[in-house]
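User: Could you check the structure of this?
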Amino acid sequence: MPVTIRSLLNHWNGSTRLVVGGTEGPSIDEPLRWVHSSELADPTPFLDAGHLLLTDGTQFQKQPHDRNIYDSYVARLSEHGIAGLGFGTSLIHSELPAELEEACRRHGLPLFLITDLTPFLAFSRFVADELAREQTARIRWSLDAQRAIARAAMRPDGLTSILAELEKQLNCSALLFDAVGTCIRAPTDGANIQQDNMFRDAVRSALERGTRSASHVMIGRREFMLQTIGHGKRLDGVLALGGLDWPDPAATDLVNSVIALAGLALTQTRALDKAHHHLRAGLFEQLLRGDRELATRTATSVWGGLPRAPLTVIVTPQPDSSDFLLDALEREAAEHRGRVFFTQREDRIVVLAEATPPDELLQLLTQHGIPIGASTATSVDTLPRGVAEAERALRHAVETGQPNVTFQEFLDRGVLGLLRREHAGTVARGILRVLHEHDAEKGSDLLTTARVWVNNECAWDTTARELGIHRHTLRNRIQLAGRLLNLDLDVLRDRLELWVAVQLMTED
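Assistant: Sure, the predicted structure tokens are below.
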């Protein structure tokens, strides 16, 4: 226990008497930093805040009843932060000057009498012994607490155990959040706290800044310290401590040890996430090259599979401030196992989702205030086309300042949109009627082949794989379609003619 004026009075209860202070006056339970004795008229240059001053009143002998002298003396002590004044009688003054008592009451300075000839040095020795005893106790507590934390870290649930031990040692609440603000560990009294919107916003804000920081947030009457964990642009989480009292550096050292251990545990999780990101990038490049079997098998074993066709490809720039979005997408992919796949390609984030992406995914992307481009419905076999569409939609979003644009919206605003408004679909069906009639007569599939080919940007291998036919068969069909349409499909202009007709043939 820290030494206080009250503990001094209790120790010398037969020779001391409290005059100003107690339950109704200034606190006599504040810890004392030291005890000095002085008979100077102004001893404050030699004292620090939190010190106790002892005097026998020699400085008041010349003018023993001048209220101004007492008032200015006590005012200086109070303004300097002196914890209290002990006045010795029986040596210079036979009794306490009433003017001194009035001044102490007026300025709120605790005052007690030393009624016998107890040496002031005895008070100093007592305080010194108590401070040394307290320091020894704190050192012993610190060592025991550090050992307890170390033992907790060796348990199978090490991260949870060290936080529980921290709560026990410091009588506080400890909550741990991962890199996207999801609560990993909460105490039994923290269930309502972690649901508080203000609290969650404070945690998320600390993470989105992407830098190491410490901040405070008040939830009701309870203060929480939020300490981010990690380094660089990639934070690993946030440790939130509530109801924490910082009695001495030992408690600070204990908290720092727990932060370090929590950071180590979260860094191991971060290493796994980084490996997943590399794996995602490799699988995505395999999908673009058409190596679907290996990529699908790997994705199934690690993430539960790939989103089912029809797919939507979403492309967005990666925010510069931090990697919070990547961490959030990792959590999103885990929660929608097999329905969401994402990867990082240079300065872009590419997301594959089902034709109707989860609302949480769209909300996550839009809340970052970055533009989004989305493709029309596509499949794994036609993934290059989907990525190209999403990239083109993203460029349009950036150019026009829109938050998100789909490729279909981009087309509707362009030349094709104009043609649709002019009901050019009738003309398109007329151009392609010859293929439809040929298919009906011969039992062939030229119209479907031409549609898939142009939608795949005239890529032979991708189209052949999607149709399940040989590449040479595909070429023969396209050449026949060109002859029937009187188009040279080796020429860009004629290919564009076919592409536009295919896009418009379903329009009224």
